[in-house]
């Protein structure tokens, strides 16, 4: 599991064995079963999660109980309720496993310790954050310029493996269309 | 102008006079007139801009020539075509002044020099990037869970001053509704 983390970080910064040992000691291995909640609305959000294997959905549930999927996260992605994580407040979102999932969890305190202890890690998190922002901006652009069918095609092109792993009903919830509308797109 | 930058950065990290002098030397003052383009689609994107005074719109123009407003930026905001800035590629967006505008421009090279030369600045940019990501995620959530009237009310509540400064036609373009629909909301 630690190998995957090292490989992931080294796409951005190169590390000595000593540096990686320092980094690795700040993470906690956690394993969850399919359908298990990693974060539930109202929880304290203790960790930011690096996904080693498995698949997650980050969900906002509205007042009427309807689920809106903000994002999916799979191998090599980071996920959490980041507003709650950064501000150390209660979760307003939930994070649920769509498959058996292994993650490496980083507490907010350890996130700060990594940044303070090794400037390279601050660079790493800055790069991840900048590209996370660009991904979110791309999604905003897609939501304001494209119709549901175009968004479906963009998603299929960008993340073909999602369509093998995620039930169609959840793809529909992510795109904001009904299950029936989605069926028409995928014929 | 530099005072505003110092005040802005010191909301995140405290600086000595020497540190601020070092930082300040990496920025270039630029002044633009209302309606002037700071970035045009196809340009090399040389700078990230800190807005000292004025108001900007970041725009995606689709194949049919229709303008979609990704964001407005006013005093104390940073703006650029960040995909093009971080990857040092050509602009796909345009950035235009809605008022006479003064900015402090930071080249990509100087952004790197600031991060390398003063770890505090890497911390500052990491904080800005994290909160930029959260702002983008909030907008995604608003786009997938709220109708146009609700988005209008959220915008009015969060940025009341926008409604004094921005023509109604642009508020409509930001919300993705027609000018007529917007008039119905604001009655």
UniProtKB/TrEMBL annotation, chains A, B:
Keyword entries, A-Z: Kinase, Transferase
Pfam name, any one: cNMP_binding
Boundaries of each Cyclic nucleotide-binding domain copy?
15-114
The protein's matches in PROSITE patterns, at most eight in alphabetical order, are given as: CNMP_BINDING_3
A single MF term (Gene Ontology): kinase activity
Q: What is this protein called?
A: cAMP-binding domain of CRP or a regulatory subunit of cAMP-dependent protein kinases
Organism name: Pedobacter caeni
